[in-house]
Amino acid sequence: MSLFLTQVTSGKVKKPLICTVYGQPGVGKTSLASEFPKPVFICTESGTDNLDVFRLPQPQTWSDLLNMVDELLTEKHDFKTLVIDSLDFAEPLSFAEVCKEHNVKSVSDLTYGKGYAAALEKWQFLFKKLSSLKEKMNVVLIAHSTIRTFQDPISNNSWDFFELKLNKNIAGLTKEFSDMLLFATYEVHTKKDGPRSKAYGDGARVLLTETRPSHQAKNRHNLPYRIPLSYESLKQAIEQEKPADTKEVKESILALLTNSTDEAFNKLVTDTADKAGDDVVKLLRIQEKLKIKFNT
Question: Is the distance from CB of 37 to CB of 82 less than 8 angstroms?
């Protein structure tokens, strides 16, 4: 007699989110987090001073931070969202804990990267707790951005892009555990001015939900690439999520190809799309590559 096949379920499971929002100072990351359902903040910095929000005491040590998460896990409360603001100010607490345990002044004093590896283990333990907390409430993680240079091994070109202002291993762990990594920024438009392009904007702030050469982002909800920076806009986009339609994706691919006058390239793309047939995953990959190529 089957133990598990009789317990198969179907359909999407709606659960709270682990959402990381990063961007430049002052763009509105903390204000966005304050709009989530009944939030309580763990403030490792003073970003909420001008907001009327619930705050736990500022953690002085890594253990303080873990203990606060534990209380939200085990104690009775009616908060619906935990906000940690910010990760890059929490990072030194993990480094200090490693230094205390190994009796060194800096994590870099431990040779062969052992200090950073020990700090990563502490973050893995934190995210394990946050994953458990996600079963009962949203988790919003705030971080700042930094600009780093990417060297493309294929084209041998390099360019600057925005990413999390964290140790690269901790940043990778954060991206892995997050349901959404959203880049908060100001909307920028360009227009031709002779041989050069000029950038301009009206101060509108947006969330970017997918990776582009200029920034890192991701989402697991088939969200639009660009969303106004507000909780209501994000909530509406998530609620309107629907499986990608094969016909719509193919039409989008053809529309994107109008940006190219290279007939050989266009034929290669259309032949590849035809070969993909109704495999929507392959079609979405083609669409994504075209969006990156034409920066749309």
Answer: no
Tokens 């100072």 correspond to 25
In this structure, are residues 140 and 30 in contact, taking their beta carbons and an 8 Å threshold?
A: no
Candidates 87, 107, 20, 96; CA nearest to 62 is: 96
Cβ atoms of residues 70 and 126 within 8 Å? no
CA distances from 118 to 25, 113, 124, 207 (A): 29, 9, 10, 33
CA 228, CA 206: separation in Å to the nearest integer?
4
pLDDT per residue over 27-41, tens digit each?
A: 999 999 999 999 999
Q: Which of 167, 60, 68, 84 is nearest to 118 (CA)?
A: 167
- Strands (E) in 78-137, as ranges, are 81-85
CA gap 15, 266 in Å, rounded:
41
Phi, psi torsion values for 208, nearest 5 degrees: -105, 130
- Say which residues have a Cβ less than 8 Å from residue 93's Cβ, sequence separation at least 6: 44, 59, 60, 61, 62, 64, 65
**Residue 62 Cα to chain centre, angstroms:** 23
Which of 217, 138, 127 is closest to 173 using CA atoms?
127
How far is Cα 76 from Cα 204, in angstroms, rounded to an integer?
39
Distance CA 13, CA 281 (A): 21
pTM listed for this prediction: 0.77
Q: List, for residues 93-126, the tens digit of each pLDDT value.
A: 999 999 999 999 999 999 999 999 999 999 999 9
Residue 32 has which token pair? 């966005």
Determine contact, residues 149/160, Cβ cutoff 8 Å. yes
For residues 7 and 51, is the Cβ–Cβ distance under 8 A? no
